[in-house]
Design a protein that fits this description.
The structure is a single chain. Helix content is about 70%, strand content about 0%. By secondary structure, it is an all-alpha fold. The relative contact order is 0.16.
Length: about 200
């Protein structure tokens, strides 16, 4: 188990929602037009969406191996985070797909010359972004409330201590867990054991 600064993770969770809302507004703006230059209009948007999706997946990986996973409701929160990060990835992929559906007219004689296909894909991407933004706000608020409650912190600390109480658990690792679980305290690495001499 790695110990992370949950206050910082809350901040990162909270930043995803406004970023998604900004991307969604841009998607809607492109969707409302004729999309005459799909690569120029959509590629930068798709790149930013993919970068956000990568950050979301990285945070999921970080939290899944941290004390967050053993806190009360941790597994359920991680399951929701896994689902919503996948939706962000799908929305990003749809932005790229919308480029292709619009440029088909340049490749095939019987392709739809209207931007309707791209608009349908972009509409789906926008809906996923909107739902994901709401989910990220909910997750950030949930973690923030838990960190603000002394009773919840005590309950979570008991769960963390119980998870650490396996073979090889040490007093030092338990102390490190208590430090990491308290957002007001800086995380410092515990003492390293001296090599055993023969």
């Amino acid at each position: 188990m790695q110990f992370v600064d949950l206050s910082e993770q809350t901040r990162v969770l909270g930043q995803v929602a406004p970023t998604l809302e900004s991307l969604r507004a841009e998607v809607e703006q492109v969707r409302a037009g004729e999309i005459p230059k799909p690569v120029r209009e959509l590629a930068p948007l798709a790149v930013r969406a993919q970068e956000l999706a990568t950050r979301c997946t990285q945070q999921l990986a970080t939290l899944s191996t941290s004390q967050y996973a053993v806190m009360k409701g941790g597994h359920e929160n991680l399951a929701e985070l896994a689902e919503v990060s996948a939706q962000v990835s799908l929305a990003a992929a749809m932005c790229t797909l919308a480029i292709h559906t619009r440029t088909e007219v340049l490749l095939y004689e019987d392709a739809d010359e209207s931007p309707q296909a791209s608009r349908r894909v972009l509409n789906d991407a926008a809906e996923r972004m909107d739902a994901s933004a709401k989910a990220y706000r909910r997750l950030a608020h949930r973690l923030s409330r838990r960190l603000a409650s002394a009773a919840a912190q005590r309950e979570d600390q008991q769960l963390i201590d119980r998870a650490l109480a396996g073979p090889g658990a040490t007093a030092a690792s338990s102390a490190a867990a208590r430090t990491a679980a308290n957002p007001r305290c800086p995380i410092s690495p515990g003492p390293t054991a001296a090599p055993r001499t023969r």
